[in-house]
Design brief:
Elements lengths: L7 H8 L5 E4 L7 H9 L7 E8 L4 E7 L3 E2 L1 H8 L4 E3 L2 H8 L17 E4 L8 E7 L2 E5 L1 H8 L2 E3 L2 E2 L2
Parallel strand pairs: 3-6, 6-9
Antiparallel strand pairs: 1-8, 2-3, 2-5, 4-10, 7-8
């Protein structure tokens, strides 16, 4: 594998002196967190997906969720005081975040976006988040992610 890229996300983490490990993996189109977990030899629950969503007024937001769980958009809308929330189309998500879908990091987004995080992410010792490029993750303590992102903690995971 090649050298890890320098991205807006890694620059922000370094600027804030956040300890993190760079993890490169072989990206697969539409592979999602399942491929990340397999390639990095971790449980998919520890791979945190960064979803760019928007409310009924097209106001963007970031939702951080365990890789093996889905977001209840109804519960999210209710908990953040909106009528509806939906995932953005890829081109809209790219515009809001400044990252390409599949390489979206919650760190160093083009615009400052409100961040929401599934509360149980804090129960994990270590999480992997996208580092700002396809095939590139950063591993860190979830408390460091909270320190930088200042997310609103929510409980919106859909369980089987």
């Amino acid at each position: 594998m090649s050298k890890a890229p320098s991205t807006a996300a890694t620059r922000l983490l370094k600027e804030h002196k956040v300890p993190f490990l760079e993890q490169l993996y072989r990206y697969e189109e539409h592979g999602g967190t399942k491929v990340c977990a397999r390639e990095c030899n971790v449980h998919e629950h520890c791979v945190i997906k960064t979803l760019i969503m928007e409310d009924e007024n097209a106001r963007p937001l970031v939702m951080l969720m365990h890789g093996d769980l889905e977001v209840s958009t109804k519960a999210l809308a209710r908990q953040i005081g909106c009528k509806t929330v939906q995932i953005c189309k890829p081109d809209v998500a790219n515009k809001h975040s400044g990252y390409q879908v599949g390489g979206t990091s919650p760190f160093g987004t083009r615009k400052a976006l409100p961040v929401y995080m599934e509360r149980t992410i804090l129960d994990l010792e270590r999480i992997l988040l996208n580092g700002g490029s396809r095939g590139f993750l950063v591993a860190m303590d979830p408390k460091d992610a909270v320190r930088i992102l200042h997310p609103v903690l929510v409980e919106v995971a859909l369980h089987d």
